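W.,

You were right to be curious about this one. When I first looked at the sequence I had no strong expectations either way, so I just let the prediction run and decided to look at it fresh. Below is the sequence, 175 residues in total, followed by the output.
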Amino acid sequence: MRLSPFRASRKTIKSICSNQGGEMKFSTSLLAAALLFADVGASHAAVRIAGDRGGRIGNYISKFQRLHSSGEPVVIDGLCASACTLVLAAVPHDKICVTSRASLGFHAAYDFGANGRTVTNPEATEMLYANYPTPVRRWIDARGGLTPQIIFLRGRQLQAMYQPCRSMRREYAGG
């Protein structure tokens, strides 16, 4: 989700900047280029997470390291389960907000064993757990820890740990 009022792809800019159409096309291309470059330095983008069931831990570590480096805020606006929850470890607390639809799903890490069955991976589970913020670890502990059974953190309990998105919107909307 972009909070900036203008966004154009490079293909759109290239098309606008083509040499067809004369003087009007040139004026339009200057305006489009100015708007594009005015937006380049702005950090008003937000990454929205919803409907993310997780996946391979290594992929999420790489993805969230890049997200951390970008400095972009994260809006959790739906399901963020399994490896997706590593966003809580990678992105600073003050860069994460949650909507009323946010739901975090936690479980033990696993590998696929013989016959395609899942086998809990204690080392990966410990790595996940150790990287979660303290309030999240306490919440997990109060529910028996990370097990093969998924547990969900949402609603008031989640909003007590992370700021609601409406309070972040002003900060990242340029206001």
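Here's what jumped out at me. The chain is about 45% helix and 15% strand. And, maybe more interesting for your project: Residues 97 and 167 are 8 Å apart (CA to CA).

Coffee later to discuss?

I.
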